[in-house]
Amino acid sequence: MRLAPPPPDVRLPWRPDHAGLLHALAFAALRVTGHEHALTHALMFDPGAIDLPEGTPNAMDAAQLRAAGPLYFAAELEAAGLLRCAELVAGLFASGAITQPLGPVAQSINAFWRGRRERLEAAEREAIFGRVLEPPHFERLMGALCRAIVAQADNADTTGVRPDLREQVGLAASAQSLAEFLAQRVDAMASIAVRDVIDTINQAIGFLRDRMLQAAFGTHSLWALIATASSSDGVTVGSATAAQRHAERGRAGQSVLAWLASNYQSASLLLDPRDAGDMELIMSAQRWLDSAPLASAQPVPGAMPSLPIAA
Questions:
Q1: What is the rounded CA–CA span in Å between residue 172 and residue 266?
Q2: In angstroms, rounded to a whole number, what is the distance separating the alpha carbons of residues 31 and 13?
Q3: Helix (H, G, I), strand (E, B), or coil: what is residue 141?
Q4: Can you tell me the distance from the alpha carbon of 298 to that of 118, in angstroms, rounded to the nearest whole number?
Q5: How far apart are the C-alpha atoms of 65 and 86, rounded to whole Å?
Q6: Would you say 54 and 271 are in contact if contact means Cβ atoms under 8 Å apart?
Q7: Nearest CA to 85 among 117, 111, 114, 112?
Q8: Are 171 and 149 in contact (CB under 8 A)?
Q9: What is the SS3 assignment for 299?
Q10: Residue 224 phi, psi (nearest 5)
């Protein structure tokens, strides 16, 4: 008598830690990589071929607007203290202050430290973010666009869509206002710099996510490590939750700005909550609105950077 074969193993879908953050980072990298080709194509565009009103984004601006989303995502991660944490950890590693074995991630930290002079410094990054996302104007225009996006879902009828000319035109006007604002500020320098910043963030997340590194500093998550580093560096960022909220706000804002780069030229816009893509946009806009602006980090004069390394 033969026994029946055992049932197949149950395989659950695997999701890496910080899947949403990694997906947003991959999206940003794709946008800025493709942006270079779009910008090259735009340089061959004859602006005299179409008579556009002054201030309306043209083909060159459309190519540059593709960089706005990744740049905003990077700015929120900067506000969260991610790169500041990576630079501090790499400096401590290079000085020999980290004595615990870190395994293969040590090579990544060492490479990050050796490349420190080849990337933008914190002051340079913040200058670019401040120029492009000039406060308080960006927040006001972004808020108006997100509210206009959400309004179409709030006022949809049972069929999913209720054509409302005022909402369509209002959404288009909000999109064009923000696009014009960004087109004047995402210059060639910002377009080139965002690639460097996204690449730097990618390297930093690569080793900051490592469990052995987190354990060496007595933490158990990426956000806790960032919060600990910010506190030790004399910067007021807040808790791990506050750092994570910056990242979530950056993800949501990047999604809205990616949609803006493709739709700002429309005279009227209608979103269908029954459409998966439109619904994802509406949810991103609502998430951005729900994440109230957090206080910007300010260094404490005279503070000495040091991280508590677990014994």
A1: 6
A2: 27
A3: helix
A4: 25
A5: 28
A6: no
A7: 112
A8: yes
A9: strand
A10: -65, -40
Check if the beta carbon of residue 243 is closer than 8 Å to that of residue 223: yes
Give the global pTM. Answer: 0.81
Query: Chain-centre distance of CA 223, in angstroms?
Result: 15
State the residue for tokens 């200058």: 127
* Rounded Cα gap, residues 78 and 297, in angstroms: 9
- 179: which 2 tokens? 């696009």
Per the prediction, the chain carries an average pLDDT of: 82
Q: How many C-beta atoms surround the C-beta of residue 248 within 10 A?
A: 18
Q: What distance in Å separates the CA atoms of residue 142 and residue 80, rounded to the nearest whole number?
A: 20
Judged by DSSP in three states, 235 sits in: strand
At 28, list the tokens.
Answer: 């940003």
Q: Which residues pair with 299 in a beta bridge?
A: 235
Query: For residue 104, what is the DSSP state?
Result: T
Distances (CA, A) of 169 to 1, 66, 138, 226, 288: 76, 23, 20, 42, 22
Phi, psi of 304 (to 5 degrees): -105, 125
Q: How far is CA 95 from CA 88, 92, 99, 113, 259, in A?
A: 11, 5, 10, 11, 45
The position carrying tokens 């260094």 is 299
Tell me the domain boundaries of the chain. 19-38+60-290
Using the 8-state DSSP alphabet, how is residue 113 labeled? H
Peptide bond into 273 cis (omega under 30): no
- The dihedral built from the CA positions of residue 65, 66, 72 and 75, taken in this order, carries a sign that is negative
The lowest-confidence range among 21-25, 164-168, 211-215 is 164-168
User: Average pLDDT of 15-44?
Assistant: 68
CA gap 291, 294 in Å, rounded: 8
Q: 235 with 124: CB under 8 angstroms?
A: no
